[in-house]
């Protein structure tokens, strides 16, 4: 078998550096305006390593999205499985805690889903959503239904949409808009926002905690 071009020798963090720089570039520019050569230059590696590690630009983009998603999905899934998400407050706080680990993911998804057509990068996002994100969402809301915390007159699918719309909005807000409103998505702010959003949701789609079933 022919050796793939650009194969690194010894230990190297070239792949990690490429993912870091690709994240920065894909967040700041439309996909078709991003240059793989510029990404490689910024990462201080040979551009041939993009072909070695990812195949092409589309492969680099998909890897960038998936690696931004990995810590978020893993932490949220583990929290649900470990029984650390038993109440609405638990769910909101857990979501913001894991999002603070990878705050770039919603922006990457939002940027690509705004594109028209069936571009490769959009297909990568859709595959990630159907393979990983949607099952975790459904797992979380299945737990809510088991615990009987959803209001009886609320459609669970619509409740799921409302919950995640509210949770993700801060992370897809343009930085300039956030700055104009004096918003800084640091840990302190996210914890305050978690409490506020939990209060809104409690009186919207969830039964107030401690309230007996209807």
UniProtKB/TrEMBL annotation:
The keyword DNA-binding applies. Residues 12-72 form the HTH tetR-type domain. PROSITE patterns: HTH_TETR_2. It comes from the Bacteria. Keywords: DNA-binding. Pfam families: TetR_N (PF00440). Coiled coil: none annotated. Residues 35-54 bind DNA. This is TetR family transcriptional regulator. It comes from Enterovibrio qingdaonensis.
């Amino acid at each position: 078998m022919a050796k793939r071009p650009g194969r690194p020798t010894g230990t190297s963090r070239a792949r990690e550096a490429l993912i870091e720089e690709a994240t920065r570039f894909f967040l700041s520019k439309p996909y078709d305006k991003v240059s793989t050569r510029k990404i490689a230059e910024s990462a201080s590696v040979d551009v041939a390593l993009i072909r070695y590690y990812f195949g092409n630009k589309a492969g680099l983009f998909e890897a960038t999205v998936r690696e931004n998603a990995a810590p978020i999905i893993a932490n949220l899934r583990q929290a649900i499985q470990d029984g650390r998400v038993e109440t609405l407050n638990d769910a909101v706080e857990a979501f913001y805690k894991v999002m603070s680990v990878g705050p770039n993911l919603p922006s990457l998804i939002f940027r690509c889903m705004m594109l028209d057509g069936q571009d490769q990068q959009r297909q990568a996002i859709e595959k990630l959503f159907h393979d990983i994100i949607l099952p975790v969402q459904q797992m979380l809301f299945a737990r809510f239904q088991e615990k009987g915390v959803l209001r009886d007159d609320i459609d669970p699918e619509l409740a799921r949409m409302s919950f995640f719309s509210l949770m993700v909005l801060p992370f897809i807000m343009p930085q300039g808009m956030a700055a104009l409103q004096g918003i800084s998505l640091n840990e302190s702010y996210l914890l305050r926002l978690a409490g506020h959003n939990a209060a809104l949701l409690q009186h919207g789609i969830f039964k107030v905690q401690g309230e007996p079933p209807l």
